[in-house]
Design a protein that fits this description.
- The protein is an alpha+beta fold and 138 residues long.
- The protein is built from 3 helices and 4 strands.
- The protein has a domain of 88 residues: Zincin-like, CATH 3.30.2010.
- Strands 1-2-4-3 form a 4-stranded mixed beta sheet, with helices on one face.
Length: 138
């Protein structure tokens, strides 16, 4: 199931890098449209597993897929990579225009993060967490 991102909505995580990447993309290319989703079975033209892909079909908005087995930071990098393809179109591949779009997404991402934390300090809060093995953190 894919969700079309035509409405502004609140992301559940305060520091959601996927939401920031998406916002950076939309700030730079407000008229660009695509769907984005997780896909653990994406493969290249040779059948090899890949981290992400963008599918362009005539008459359909592009679809970006990111492999959910990636670490969060790797997945955000892949999302930025694929959104740069959406920004410049299928014919550009990894040329200069694609590189400029990819770099612009990173610059806008950094600007948004700095804006979010413009007070210069993160507030420290008492937390309760869960260890990765399922046990509660003291």
């Amino acid at each position: 199931m894919s969700f079309k991102h035509d409405k502004e909505y609140r992301h559940p995580f305060e520091n959601d890098p996927f939401g920031v990447i998406w916002t950076a993309f939309r700030n730079l290319w407000p008229d660009a449209d695509c769907t984005v989703g997780w896909d653990g079975g994406i493969r290249d033209e040779h059948g090899e597993p890949v981290a992400g892909s963008t599918v362009f079909e005539d008459g359909v908005v592009p679809h970006v897929a990111v492999n959910p087995s990636l670490e969060v930071w790797d997945a955000t990098e892949v999302l930025a990579h694929e959104l740069a393809h959406v920004a410049v179109g299928i014919d550009e591949q990894h040329g200069e225009k694609w590189r400029a779009a990819f770099d612009a997404i990173h610059v806008e991402y950094d600007r948004l993060v700095q804006e979010e934390h413009s007070d210069g300090e993160m507030q420290t809060k008492e937390t309760h967490g869960v260890k990765l093995n399922g046990g509660a953190k003291p």
